[in-house]
Amino acid sequence: MSYSQDKTIVIIGAGIAGISAALHTLDYNLKPILIDRNRHLGGRVRSFLANDIGQPLDNGQHILASAYKETRHLLKRIGSSDRVLFQERFEARFITGPGKEFQFRTYRLPSPLHFLLPLLKKKNVANIHWRDFWQIFNHSDLLGQDRFKDMTVEEWINITGQSQSMTELLWKPLALSILNTPIHTASAYLLYQAISRSFLGPYKMSGMGIPLDWLSEIFSGPAERYLKDHQAEIRLLTPVNKIIRQNDQVFRVVTPGETFTSKWIISCLPPYALHTLLESCVLPDLNSLKKNLARFEYNPIMTVNIFLDKPLPGNFPASLVASPIQWIFCHPSTDLSQHQYGYALVSSASNAYSESSREEVLEMVQAELERMFQIDFHNTYRILAYKIIKEKRATISQSPEALEIRPGPVTPVPKFILAGDWTDTGLPATIESAALSGRLAVKAVVEASQQP
Ligand SMILES: Cc1cc2nc3c(=O)[nH]c(=O)nc-3n(C[C@H](O)[C@H](O)[C@H](O)COP(=O)(O)OP(=O)(O)OC[C@H]3O[C@@H](n4cnc5c(N)ncnc54)[C@H](O)[C@@H]3O)c2cc1C
User: Fold this and answer.
1) How far is the CA of 73 from the centre of ligand 1 (A)?
2) Could you give the strand order of the β-sheet that contains 31-35, starting from the edge strand earlier in sequence?
3) From the CB of 298, is ligand 1 less than 6 Å away?
4) Is the pTM of this model over 0.85?
5) What is the DSSP pairing of strand 251-254 with strand 242-245?
6) Higher confidence at residue 1 or residue 142?
7) Is 434 in the pocket of ligand 1 (CB under 6 A)?
8) Ligand 1 pocket test: which of 46, 269, 277, 280 has the largest number of ligand atoms within 8 Å of its C-beta?
9) Could you read off the pLDDT of 259-274 as tens digits, one per residue?
10) Is the CB of 428 under 6 A from ligand 1?
11) Domain-by-domain residue ranges, the chain?
12) Within 11-147, where are the H helices?
């Protein structure tokens, strides 16, 4: 079957970038055709039923930030705002070592006092000194300067003389949580772009956004309903195999069952998927893009979902400092009436566990819980179920080299536009970057259409 309409825009990939692009096309009276090879919208933000443990699960714990403006706008539009708890100010428990912990909450004060003062109050338990505060205060803006664009976080730490304790408490966890990249490869500039919007912004922007429901109930389900209600076309289980530039006017987008004809294409694919697609297309103007796509590297994220017969001590979310597990979150499925306590344990840039067996990972998790919480896990807790999810290509590796090759929305092929978390949005490759990239892509379409 062939499908053609003058005002249509084909959007390939229905992750957050594709959803965002589709929503924004509606604002300009254009008709999006959103195509994805998966069964559902959402891409890397999705839930599924884990049959082996009889539980719905997310493909990995996702945390938003109060400073995620684009994402909050998207959530509001599809009616999901109330399914994410956006903290009014950052609050979490930090476990810094066996039996050592503190609760941290930013103050209602101008930046950076809102986070430096409460940190100062905890300086003994966090093992930090006056000098460390001065080093942050004095040098944090350096991170964002253009001349530091080719620097890693580790290089910045060395140049500015950040202390060992501050590195363990702040810089290593921030690079892992925000960039999913260890400090020796993480881009200092990109880290600054994220923290300047949250920690160095007003205190109200410092909080986390914690999902209160399964990701598909927050993003893909409501987005699909909204888009269908607004006459968007959605094609799922529809891999795009080929794009043919028919003449200077239109593209043909080839899938196994249908061919779509459109003047515009917005690709919302990750670099590796776009590279594969371009391999089967004759679009010589994109050769240099193709070369760069092959240069991206990726980091995994491992989420250990564990269901216990008793609660772990204390409140959550909790950050574990200098541990292979960086965060523990309560699961949306925790069912107190069933005495079932679910937790998601997150290990970012988890390359060290890529080849580990389930048993080895579980062993590490139990040892860490015993060590950090000072509990006799083996003799006190019963594991009701567990499931380890390793997402191999969770995000691109957010290094200075990757920063250099992230392309903007406009490509050398007219009317072939790019979006996706990895494109050059000025933000780390996150949900927020994906949502923003969708808007920037549609803006590029509209601007180009208005040119004579
Ligand atoms: C485990 C994990 C934890 C994460 N944690 C966080 C977090 O806490 N906070 C945060 O902000 N971000 C987090 N991220 C990153 C976040 O998920 C991504 O930045 C975001 O989802 C990327 O969206 P996207 O639309 O750019 O790409 P994707 O979600 O990858 O969407 C691309 C889509 O293209 C489709 N596709 C591929 N090839 C084809 C083809 N040939 N034809 C048709 N369709 C195709 C895919 O099926 C997919 O749906 C995490 C990611 C993972 C995996």
Assistant:
1) 19
2) 233-235, 31-35, 8-12, 264-267, 416-418
3) no
4) yes
5) antiparallel
6) 142
7) yes
8) 269
9) 999 999 999 999 999 9
10) no
11) 2-45+216-296+398-450, 104-203, 298-396
12) 16-27, 69-78, 113-121, 123-126, 130-139
**Are 199 and 118 contacting, i.e. CB atoms less than 8 angstroms apart?**
no
> What are the two backbone dihedrals, phi and then psi, of residue 87, each rounded to the nearest 5 degrees?
-65, 140
CA of 10 to the centre of ligand 1 (A): 18
Cα 120 to averaged position of ligand 1 atoms, centre (Å): 38
- Rounded to the nearest angstrom, the distance between the alpha carbon of 52 and the centre of ligand 1 is 24
pLDDT, tens only, 183-194: 999 999 999 888
Residue nearest to atom 53 of ligand 1 (CA): 394
Which residues lie below 8 Å from residue 417, measured CB to CB, with a gap of 6+? 264, 265, 266, 267, 409, 410, 411, 441, 444, 445
Indicate whether residue 431 lines ligand 1 (CB < 6 A): yes
Residues 6+ apart with CB under 8 A from 104: 90, 91, 92, 93, 94, 118, 119, 122
Q: Do domains 2-45+216-296+398-450 and 298-396 have the same CATH topology?
A: no
Ligand 1 within 6 A of CB of 223: no
**The CATH number of domain 298-396 is 3.90.660.10:** yes
Confirm or reject CATH 1.25.40.390 for domain 2-45+216-296+398-450, answering yes or no: no
